[in-house]
Design goal:
Layout: H1 2-21, H2 33-40, E1 45-48, E2 51-53, E3 57-62, E4 64-65, E5 83-89, E6 95-101, E7 106-111, E8 114-115, E9 120-123, E10 132-138, E11 143-150, E12 154-161
Parallel strand pairs: 1-3, 2-5
Antiparallel strand pairs: 3-12, 4-5, 5-11, 6-10, 6-12, 7-8, 7-11, 9-10
Length: about 180
């Protein structure tokens, strides 16, 4: 049974990889293969804006009109209309994380009431499942993510620890 499960997961990853080669999903500055699989598996929790999650992972965030969002810290960008939201991860281990979005929106990562600097960002318009990914260094304490400027009312979001030696290649230009 375990062998069949492993074979199934490998087949799914290969299929996603083949499909991704036909579009821009393989041309991000770093791999978004994990996110492509996780966004496509249908097992994401639905989270309302201003909700909380116990830890990092993958979820679908329900946004609201940006003028109704109360941000934890002043956003780096103006409230440029569209939809926005916030979500707090109540516990996260210290380290470098990759935050990936399925749609166009701006994102701020906030700890201790201050926006964290983005270490790296990559964005593409030709990958149907992923639009952008950012990397931040976090401390071991609650992490609040702020979103705005989205044209959609729902964003798939992943917050995954960067694997050692992964997520740092900059071989392809981001769009």
């Amino acid at each position: 049974m375990r062998t069949a499960l492993v074979a199934g997961v490998l087949s799914l990853i290969a299929a996603v990889g083949a499909a991704a080669e036909d579009d821009g999903c393989r041309r991000f500055a770093w791999s978004v293969d994990r996110e492509l699989v996780l966004f496509g598996d249908g097992l994401m929790a639905d989270v309302e804006s201003e909700g909380a999650l116990p830890k990092d992972g993958v979820f679908a965030l329900r946004l609201r009109p940006v003028e109704r969002v109360i941000y934890a810290a002043a956003p780096a960008r103006s409230r440029d209309g569209g939809f926005g939201g916030i979500v707090t991860l109540e516990w996260i281990a210290a380290g470098r994380y990759q935050i990936t979005l399925s749609g166009d929106a701006w994102i701020d990562a906030v700890q201790n009431g201050r926006r964290l600097p983005m270490i790296a960002t990559t964005r593409r318009g030709d990958c149907p499942a992923v639009r952008q990914s950012v990397q931040v260094e976090v401390e071991s304490q609650p992490l609040t993510l702020q979103f705005g400027g989205a044209a959609v009312e729902r964003l798939d979001v992943s917050v995954l620890r960067v694997r050692e030696g992964a997520g740092r290649r900059l071989s392809a230009p981001a769009r």
